[in-house]
Specification:
Distance between the termini: 47 Å
Strand order of the largest sheet: 5-4-3-6-7-10
Shape: elongated
Structural class: alpha/beta
Order of helices and strands: HEHHHEEHEEHHEHEEEHEHEH
Radius of gyration: 30 Å
Number of helices: 11
Helix content: 40-55%
Strand content: 15-25%
Mean pLDDT: 84
Number of strands: 11
């Protein structure tokens, strides 16, 4: 029902042509239920001699033909609906936790090494005209690469990330918002920044700096959603002075950050899962839904249904050896 409510028509008066396929359906049903009078017993019953066609094939062929005609009528009325189109420009801030917990090996070869690999793959999934910035954070944040379209520079910087003590998620978010101020204006709208988003990867909880929730709320006020990724497994640990120090992922904090900013929270416990998450985020930030004409969609439906109808007719008419 939601799809029907979203679709509007530029030429709604043309929908009256739907009466034609409706009339075809009524006529076909009338012919299908008509009874055939019985002939004399001595008359040869040709139906018993000739090969029998399967009724479901005949019904399916007619159904596809009528549905194809109806789809063409809908296309003729020039429907409009929401469709995904690539964004022309946007700025993405990759904000990566480099606290000591990232050396945990519960994700092979380590959380940080896997995160670096997946982040570089993420760069390739973004449209070329997107600006990308890189922010790292531990006890304090650092803008490593300002917004740029130079993917090689960002990739090299990702390779050079190194772990440091403590975790300041809130400070990482504030630094990411500052980085967005350096993004160039939209050339089509001078003085206006293109859309932006923060992709935040972390495996721990804030233990220094300003609260992450307040930073996320500030991000939301600026219209910058945060896509947070809770990265690692519950059994992750690091060695401190010969002792195992558990470093489980804090899902609650990262979920609260995403919600407060108007973004979305993801989880990943392996390199493969992390790459899938990044691909999903790339599609979310790389495309936008716009209200546009979708005539081609219904023409495509009509073509597919016409092919099915043709195949049904061929199967009924042919006599295979």
């Amino acid at each position: 029902m939601m799809v029907i409510q979203l679709i509007h028509f530029m030429r709604p008066g043309r929908l009256w042509w739907l009466l034609v396929p409706a009339a075809v359906v009524i006529g076909y049903l009338a012919l299908s239920v008509r009874t055939t009078p019985r002939g004399p017993v001595t008359r040869v019953n040709l139906r018993a001699v000739l090969p029998k066609d399967k009724a479901w094939k005949r019904h399916l062929a007619v159904l596809c033909s009528v549905a194809s005609l109806a789809s063409l009528v809908v296309a003729f009325a020039q429907p409009q609906d929401y469709r995904e189109v690539p964004r022309d420009r946007a700025t993405i801030v990759l904000t990566i936790d480099v606290s000591r917990s990232m050396i945990a090996t519960d994700v092979e070869p380590s959380r940080l090494a896997a995160a670096q690999s997946a982040a570089k793959s993420f760069l390739g999934d973004l449209p070329d005209r997107f600006n990308v910035a890189l922010v790292q954070f531990a006890a304090s944040p650092q803008l490593v690469v300002p917004p740029t379209t130079d993917r090689a520079a960002v990739s090299t910087a990702i390779d050079n990330l190194e772990v440091k003590p403590s975790t300041a998620i809130g400070e990482g978010i504030y630094s990411s918002l500052d980085a967005l101020k350096l993004a160039p204006d939209d050339p089509k709208q001078p003085g206006k920044k293109p859309p932006a988003a923060i992709v935040l990867l972390s495996d721990g909880a804030t233990n220094v700096g300003r609260p992450s929730l307040g930073a996320a709320q500030q991000s939301g006020k600026q219209g910058v959603p945060i896509y947070s990724i809770a990265y690692g497994t519950p059994g992750g640990y690091v060695m401190e002075d010969g002792q195992r120090q558990p470093v489980p992922v804090n899902h609650h904090e990262l979920a609260a950050v995403a919600k407060a900013s108007g973004g979305e929270k993801f989880s990943a416990e392996s390199l493969g899962q992390l790459r899938d998450v990044y691909k999903s985020i790339a599609r979310s930030v790389g495309y936008e839904k716009v209200y546009a004409e979708v005539t081609d969609r219904f023409v495509g439906y009509a073509l597919l249904l016409a092919v099915l109808a043709g195949l049904g007719v061929i199967s009924l008419a042919a006599r295979w050896p």
